[in-house]
Amino acid sequence: MNETAQKSETSDVIDPAAYASATAAIRAEAKRLLAEGLVTAVIGYKAGRRSGTALPTIVTDPARAEDLIFTPACVNNLALYLTKAKKDVAKKGKVAIVAKGCDMRALAGLMGESQLKREDLFIIGVACAGVHAGNGERSVARKCRECAVHTPAGADLVAGTVPVMPELTPVEGQELARLEAMTAGERWAFWKEQFSRCVKCYACRSICPFCYCEQCLCDRNRPQAVESAPRPAGNMAWHIVRAMHLAGRCAGCAECERACPMDIPLNLLNRKMANELKELYGHEAGLEAKEKGPLAEYREDDDQSFIK
Amino acid sequence: MHAEKVNHDFEPKLVAFVCTWCTYAGADLAGTSRMQYPANVRVLKFPCTGRIDPVFILRAFQKGADGVLVSGCHPGDCHYMAGNFHARRRFAAFRKLLEFVGVDLDRLQFSWVSAAEGGKWVEVVTELTERVRKMGPMAEFKDLELEECWSGKLDTPELEEAYKAIP
CB-based contact (8 Å) between A282 and chain B? Predict the structure, then answer.
């Protein structure tokens, strides 16, 4: 991928001013919800210390509702704060959460897996045209270039309107097509090179709203399923297992890829699996909670042409 | 009576993950019926194909298998009602993932072999053995297993340049 070309083409295409109406709506709604006591906390974003950055925050005082913002730097998927890993947040009672379209898909997925209850949540959806690739970066994230959920339908409130966006090149789709056109050997070489950089920091697991298992299979050592040291064999196995466990569940928020300190294109694997499951079983991660994912249900007439 | 024994240059190692109710019984039937099939296959018995985790397949390849066979009851015959239906979806997805990562799917075979199909078991094992024999040893995962941390090199030009750039 030609990174310099990508940068110059897209530098700063999202005008932070375009999200001013969303920010105003989030603040007003948070203030109202907290003042009326409808929720105990609002999970949202506040400005980071450096200009042009943002941080996740939890607001409990209506007076602090003015801290909340929405800008292209609001990259985090806040659904993470509602999973088992962060139990104490959900225990406090009904909470409001600021969600972009992709975060909303994660929330829907978690509801489908009985990790969350819709009635415990007040979802402040954001009409989002796209966010930056990371804090401090100015280019549009790869996931946003092919986003199908700019307006999160099904939220309790949609803040702002989607600003008009210029046409963006689908970098990720192109990369996927390029890989699919390769021979098996070339693909193996590609992934081997990518995974060889992995340092097994498990940032991709920590940031994933769907990696909420109390004990990860990959942490077990008696018997050990996946080697835990950052060596090539264990890296390859970890990334295959991660992609497999997210198949049919991944919401496509691409947080794993953003959190990865070694820039491994993890979302390519996620997207590939999402495409395959759509083709095989017509399943797509959507905004509505589904009781069962594609790998948790079956049909008697499923394709079995690969089985002898 | 026995077929002439041929000495091959390469004897592939195959691992078969089978369900105890159908394929294991089928393989047993092949044995008690005195049917001949390649001794390359190592059979591992599971309660159900639904118990067979994709991790097992990875692990088999890493530890030296040249081919893997997963076999269980025909759809509708599962002892646990739906284990093989779930397995079918899981392995359909897993195959696609392995293909995307760059593994040759000819080394991975799925089959339905019932307790009455001793003949089919022989056929499946023979076919896979011969196919993998032609393909040669599975090098990809084994090479990874032997490789050490990253490149192992601490004196690459890039690192040196980065080191010098530190003010």
Answer: no
Question: SS in 3 state form for A101-145?
Answer: HHHHHHHHHHHHCCCCCHHHEEEEEECCCCCECCCCCCCECCHHH
| Residues of chain B neighbouring A298 (CB-CB closer than 8 A) | 82, 85-86, 88-89
Cβ atoms of A37 and A93 within 8 Å: the answer is no
- From A110, A139, A159, give the residue that closes a domain: A159
pTM attached to this predicted model: 0.89
Question: How many domains is chain B built from?
Answer: 1
Q: How far apart are CA A218 and CA A257, in angstroms?
A: 19
Q: What is the mean pLDDT of residues B9-33?
A: 95
pLDDT in tens, B119-136: 999 999 999 999 999 999
pLDDT at B148: 67
Inter-chain CB proximity B88 and A225 less than 8 Å: no
What does DSSP say about strands A68-69 and A41-47: parallel, antiparallel, or unpaired? antiparallel
CATH number at residue B143: 3.40.50
How many beta carbons lie within 10 A of that of residue A73, not counting itself?
A: 26
Domain assignment present for B3: no
Report which DSSP code applies to B81: S
- Report the residue of chain A nearest B95, measured CA to CA: A306
Please answer yes or no on whether B101 and A308 come within 8 Å at the CB atom: no
The segments of chain A whose pLDDT lies below 70 read 1-13, 85-86, 89-90, 135
Tell whether A48 and A126 lie within a shared domain: yes
Q: Is A274 on the interface with B (CB under 8 A)?
A: no
Closest by Cα among A133, A95, A121 to A13: A133
**A228 and A119 within one domain:** no
Of A180, A184, A307, the CB nearest to B104: A184
* Tokens 């709203």, residue located: A209
Residues A126 and A186 placed together within one structural domain of the fold: no
Sheet of B67-72, strand order: B41-46, B14-19, B67-72, B108-112
Across chain B, what does the average pLDDT equal? 91
**Complex ipTM more than 0.85, yes or no:** yes
Number of domains chain A is built from? 2
Domain hosting A276: range is 171-281
Tell me B75's DSSP state: T
CB-based contact A307 B89, cutoff 8 Å: no
Residues 67-86 of B with CB under 8 A from A: 75-76, 82, 85-86
Best mutation target among B55, B74, B123 (most A Cβ atoms within 10 Å) is: B55
